[in-house]
Amino acid sequence: MGLTSKEWSVLLYFIEREGYAPVGSPQQKPFISYPAKIERDLGGDVSRGWAAKICEGFEKKGILGRMMVRPPRQSHTTAHYYLKRDLPAFRQVVRHVMACVRPADMHVFFGYRYFSGMACESIIREALYEKGVEMRRTIRLPFWDTPDARLLFERYAKASGIEEDFDGYMSGLINKKAHECQEFDEISLRLPVFPDSMPKEEREKAFESLNKEELEKYPFIRFDSSGVKDHYQRYERQKLILPIMALIQVSPCAMAEFINGDWKPLDRTPRFDPEGTGTMEYLLFRLLFKALNDLAATRSIDGEGIARMAWLRKSNNVVSDDGGDALLTIVLNDGRRLYFDGGFDTDHDMGSRPEEDMDYWVRTWTGFDEDLCRGLLFKAEDVKDAAALIRRLKDPGDRVASHIARKFSFEAQRIISYVDADSTPSPSLVRRLVDEINEVVMGECVYDEITFKDVALSASTLTLLRNKLSGGGATFEDYVLNHALLSDAFAGCLTHTII
Hints:
The protein is an alpha+beta fold. 45% of the residues lie in helices and 11% in strands. The mean pLDDT is 87.
């Protein structure tokens, strides 16, 4: 049943005034109001009596919550109402907005801070968990830290009769001695999406229950093993959560599809792949093309979410960081880009369900926006002495270099450990090191007093540092500081001037 005009006025009243702090954030303070104030704020269009009845009705439906508060200049408490910030309430709000608003105006209404605040990581994870979504991923050897990778290799080598030891395998692999490298059996794991509220013990039980066979083969693998931990701390967000969040924040139709659609994860076979997103491929395909439809109609992004701008097949044919030609590019406010590509054909069996055919495809990847990050990102030509840089990163006694190397991916850490320091680094290795350094630059602040105590910091870096330590600075100020710190710490190896 739809809303009356008065009910819609009250619901819109709360939506327009609701803040945008993501669910669970310390800044989260819901807007609260009471019937007499609603009457005044709406200019008498809805009387306090009707406002009270409507608020009570929304409370029964689970859209509004209630608290007893004493208003100013009153001696008694009064029922105050607020929009509930949970998934069931959000689903109802999205459904009502889609029913009450003209399609041409949809992007304006979904630009309100309430929607970008609710379309956050915790809500997305909760929705995925309710649908039973899991990533079925073959986690390759590079995605485990060296102790775990060594155990995995030794277990596989023993079972397969391989005489080569781990150090020989890694040295041959990294130094391109292909004849010395054996094929390694990858580990296939079912990795469910968990809601933020689920205790670690319950997550661990679910993980072990879904992966009994693989854990019997590799009994030293646990929920807190490096490859699994990295999946939940970084990989899941990058490959699944972030693409969904970007698409539903830029597209009302994609948001409605994700929040209220009848989709379900694909479960044709226990299909595993390095990406791990096979079970969600059809949903990502649908969200992508719904977002393209909305963006084509408005050619704008409203609201204050994670997205800054987007383009479709940019006219100057700029390609993505890895050289791929993306169908859709979304630039995020943190300086990163999300790339989407997808397609389909019409050659499929009549009568079959769309998601059951493999006549569609979608993929996503990330990079940095050169315009937003201008002057912050190192390039290969900024490496003055690649061999010296590698030697420093390999040296456990170099406090700063070790601190930075530990922030690299597991694969990059292992490359540094096993690469031949006496040989000239290849161009591909230099590019890989630059990529890893840029990930550090565009991350959390790397400074701590003990690590950098012996580094001669420039006057400009010290100014940036004082601003940071005094509480000043925002995300991009942190990036600028990181760049300056690394430039000073590796002064003989890196050179760069911020524009």
